[in-house]
Design goal:
alpha/beta; 2 domains; 11 strands; Class I SAM-dependent methyltransferase; S-adenosyl-L-methionine
Length: about 400
């Protein structure tokens, strides 16, 4: 069986994706113009599939450059949609297995160097630090080119369909500040603060004293310099460390933007109890995180995402998270799903990557750049298809009088 024809049943006879292979074979979709072409460049691509016949094998082939996509990757992934090998007939699977099996012995291949395997106890401080270092301590310059001037690596909030990525990131920070009711003189704890943009926004626009904590050494160094450049040193501290090591308390507000995905199901109850304990009576928590839409979608990340992007990432249903947040003592006051906004955010980051491709490759290496070129459109499709969501949940720590301090109808 020719290589291109071997792939066609897996992708689907009607899938509008063409296939071109190193053996000279080609396959075009029946009844549709192709939106992209999958280029199987060498036998090594098949060897990766033989060793891991799933998304991890395909990702290894792509990251290493032995498999490529000509055309828009987002359009290609959208066209393939929810297709799985379960749609392939048993006879086809047998023929494919027979073709690929010898490659595992004849052509052994090591994973690309960008692949990461975790060590130690899951979600221990050392292992969490290792996971964060893998993804974030790559190159601040690389992130500047991809994320843009906002340096915000979390879902933006688009005030309109024509808003820029920078406008949307500012709107996100403003929305969080509004939900937390930040006012001059208040104290904010921002856990998993990234490059410190929420902490700096709170200080610059609301006169808040903010402590941001990140496990990434590179993020902390960048943010500390930016705090000094903006003249915010009297209001903002960026600390390199684990949020669990914060000893201060009696904060007026806590923001957790993009951290919960890294906590792990087993540790979530303790995580919310810890944040509850950091707040004064009447203080608010805004928890912003990626979730799965229901308990039927898998909690652990896809193998490609786990090895190449977010090691040990774990997504949980928003209802489950709200229950644990409530059990920790919080009264839940507001919740909203922003998944369409994350799709737009990812599209903006992908556009930045393409616009700065050569410089991104020079800064972080071609393999790393290809990881991003694949994972961002894949996640964008996930949000579009409602395989993943993004929720903001707002809670308050009530006092003995049970007064929440919320207006009858908040503007947001």
């Amino acid at each position: 069986m020719q290589v291109a024809e071997m792939f066609r049943p897996v992708l689907g006879e009607q899938a509008p994706v063409a296939i071109r292979a190193y053996d000279g074979s080609r396959s075009s979709p029946s009844g549709a113009s192709p939106v992209a072409t999958v280029d199987v460049r060498s036998e090594t691509a098949l060897a990766y599939l033989a060793s891991s016949p799933n998304s991890l094998g395909l990702a290894r082939a792509y990251v290493s450059g032995h498999l490529d996509v000509e055309g828009d990757i987002y359009e290609a992934l959208t066209a393939l949609g929810e297709l799985t090998v379960s749609d392939v007939t048993p006879a086809t699977l047998v023929r494919m297995a027979a073709r690929l099996a010898p490659l595992r012995f004849r052509h052994r291949v090591a994973p690309p160097p960008e692949e990461h395997r975790q060590h130690g106890r899951r979600h221990s401080k050392d292992r969490d630090s290792e996971a964060i270092e893998h993804h974030y301590d790559v190159s601040n310059r690389f992130y500047e080119m991809v994320l843009g001037p906002s340096m915000a690596y979390t879902c933006a909030v688009y005030p309109s369909a024509t808003a820029t990525l920078e406008d949307a990131q500012f709107t996100k920070h403003a929305l969080v500040a509004e939900k937390l009711r930040l006012e001059p003189g208040m104290r904010l704890l921002d856990v998993g603060c990234g490059w410190g943009q929420m902490a700096m926004h709170a200080a610059e626009h609301h006169g808040v004293r903010a402590l941001g904590v990140t496990l990434s050494r590179d993020q902390a160094h960048w943010a500390q310099k930016e705090v000094a450049r903006r003249g915010l040193g009297d209001l903002v501290e960026i600390r390199h460390g684990d949020y669990r090591d914060v000893t201060e308390g009696e904060f007026d507000a806590v923001s957790s933007i993009g951290l919960t995905e890294h906590i792990g199901r087993r540790n979530i109850p303790g995580y919310f109890r810890f944040l509850y304990g950091k707040l004064r009576t009447g203080g608010r928590l805004l928890n912003h995180c990626i979730t799965r839409p229901d308990a039927h979608h898998r909690a652990h990340a896809d193998p490609f995402i786990d090895r190449y992007v977010f090691p040990d990432g774990e997504l949980l249903p928003v209802g489950w998270l709200i229950s644990r947040m409530n059990a920790a003592g919080f009264e839940i006051r507001h919740e909203e799903n922003l998944r369409e906004h994350y799709s737009r955010t990812l599209a903006g980051w992908s556009a930045n990557l393409e616009a700065n491709w050569d410089e991104c490759v020079a800064e972080a290496g071609e393999g790393r750049a290809r990881v991003w070129r694949l994972y961002m459109p894949a996640c964008q499709v996930g949000f579009d298809l409602n395989n993943i969501q993004l929720h903001q949940v707002l809670g308050v720590k009530l006092g003995p009088d049970a007064r929440s301090g919320f207006p009858l109808r908040p503007a947001y």
